[in-house]
Amino acid sequence: MTSDLTLYTNPRSRGRIARWMLEETGAAYDTVVLDYETTMIAPEYRAINPMAKVPAIVHRGQVVTETAAICAYLAEAFPDAELAPLAEERARYYRWMFFAAGPLEAAITNRAMGVNPTPEQQRMAGYGDFERAVAVVGDAVAEHPYIAGARFTAADVYLGSQLMWFTQFGLIPKTDGIMAYIDRLSDRPAHRRATALDDGKTADDA
């Protein structure tokens, strides 16, 4: 280990989002690849994340888990990368970062598991129903080049990663607006670097 920032991940996980975010910051970091059946549930890693989930980062002794939180934290920790929101971008940045982490992911996870809330249950579910959540985010990404406006931010790393994953596996429709947004993000050098790193590494390499 050589840096004061470490990523704990598995290439077949949401750790790919954290990897992309780290590549966007340009910061030096170490990587620890964990295996689902062994090192991820071992006491050593549970001391970092008791949920036994990845990703997690440790930065100067501070632990951050939850992928959206990692993206937001790194944007602030490395301000020179200019991934945190400007004053005029802040409302959309936080709105859509947390929409993706909450209602959108819940809606799609439930749909994938065959859970379709009744009209009465929709009042309890933060996303209402699947169609509404997907339509709302589709409209949002079509409004501007990036989710907070004209400029790429950490919110695009998180929301964009979710949309890439969900469309890849047919969990949401590939609308023109969503696919144009994904194309813009996929072409970023940091995204290409992160993808190459994760595609070239497996848990057996750890």
What does this structure look like?
- The chain is globular and about 50 Å long.
- The protein has eight helices and four strands.
- Strands 2-1-3-4 form a four-stranded mixed beta sheet, with helices on one face.
Helix content: 40-55%
Order of helices and strands: EHEHEEHHHHHH
Shape: globular
Which segments are poorly predicted (pLDDT under 50) over 5 or more consecutive residues?
202-206
Strand count: 4
Q: What's the total helix number?
A: 8
Strand content: 5-15%
Mean pLDDT: 95
What is the CA-atom radius of gyration, in angstroms? 17 Å
Major β-sheet, in short? 4 strands, mixed
Please supply descriptive tags for the structure shown above.
single chain; 206 residues; alpha+beta; four-stranded mixed beta sheet; 8 helices; disordered C terminus
Compile the SSE list and pairings.
Blueprint: E1 5-9, H1 15-25, E2 30-33, H2 43-46, E3 56-59, E4 62-65, H3 67-77, H4 90-112, H5 130-143, H6 154-168, H7 176-186, H8 189-199
Helix pairs in contact: 1-3, 1-6, 1-8, 3-6, 4-5, 4-6, 5-7, 6-7
Put the structure in a nutshell.
The chain is an alpha+beta fold and 206 residues long.
